[in-house]
Each structure stands twice: as C-alpha cells, then as structure tokens.
Fold this protein.
Amino acid sequence: MEALNVQIVNPKAKSLLLNLEAMNLIRIEVKPMLSEILAKLRRNEVEMPILEKIAKEVDLVRQKRYEAKMQNNH
C-alpha cells in the first residue's frame, strides 16, 4: 500500500476521489492541517506563555541536568 498527500485544486476532483472510495479502490483519511491544530491549541490555552516564563523553565531544566551530571561525576 502507498500513501499520498493530495491537494485538491478543482472541487470535481474530490467527487472523483469519493467515488473511488465508494468502490473500495482507495481509502481516504482526512487529517487536520497544522494551522487548524495550532488554532485549536490556542483557543484552549488560558494564557499564552510569555518569553520570561519559557526562559525560566528552560533554566530550571538545565540546572537540574547540570546537577545530575555533577552528582554522577562524583
């Protein structure tokens, strides 16, 4: 089986694809586009993370890794 990503330019092409699916010649899986996924995530987000929060979280993770590395070396 081979998977293809198809962009439909003409609406008539979609009806042809649906007919092929009805004849069990192809299977169509509709996957959301990245922009749709991001829009959904943004709608669900209470507040957008600010750069300072992200930087603080990165620093904490780096500090934990550094401390774990130092403990393993001793």
In short: Helices lie at 11-22, 34-44, 51-73. The chain is about 60% helix and 0% strand. The two ends are 54 Å apart (CA to CA). The chain has a mean pLDDT of 87.
